[in-house]
Amino acid sequence: xxxxxxxxxxxxxxxxxxxxxxxxxxxxxxxxxxxxxxxxxxxxxxxxxxxxxxxxxxxxxxxxxxxxxxxxxxxxxxxxxxxxxxxxxxxxxxxxxxxxxxxxxxxxxxxxxxxxxxxxxxxxxxxxxxxxxxxxxxxxxxxxxxxxxxxxxxxxxxxxxxxxxxxxxxxxxxxxxxxxxxxxxxxxxxxxxxxxxxxxxxxxxxxxxxxxxxxxxxxxxxxxxxxxxxxxxxxxxxxxxxxxxxxxxxxxxxxxxxxxxxxxxxxxxxxx
Length: 272
Prior knowledge:
By secondary structure, the protein is an alpha/beta fold.
């Protein structure tokens, strides 16, 4: 699951701080002068402007009254509360997403969970656990929008290889799990998508090292994204890509062929 942002990283807190600084400076006030006018300490005003403190309701209301902002600071504070536990992507993931849109082919190995490109809405929601509803909805919406590349005009060729344990791991309810398996079957019938599965009785194989995604582009360049326990790394150095290409090919030597994979998924569906 993606990491949770610390307060000083949250865009809403940064927006509040910048608005506070702008209104204060426009009024020609120092932090100390504003603090005295509002009945707060100058160190508190400084902490809010530096994004080191979440503004209190009293402080937001005092700012609105003093600057006559028609509720601006109260609304900004509410946005902070709504997004204070916002999901932040692992390092390198935003860069990966930009490049994913440009990829001609995508090779994915998923060791633990269904890859985000293939998750159903309910499966993605279930992954969010105890994260607040607002944040979870934002995360799921972005994930569903991302999947549009699979059905757009001239979509990338996608090869998805799963460890069989992914098919048995129930995320959410049995109904959510069933719908996710049905979605994988449906996706496997698209002309630009191939799905295969490494059986559980394989024993040790290179995929046990973790999930990764390889991207290939029209100009012949390639990239790889690796994510492990909430940390990520996006790699574009040509000298480092061949190792992952070899690893992916080795993983696929253990996988069922397409028909075998469909049979396996169908069998799992029947057992639910």
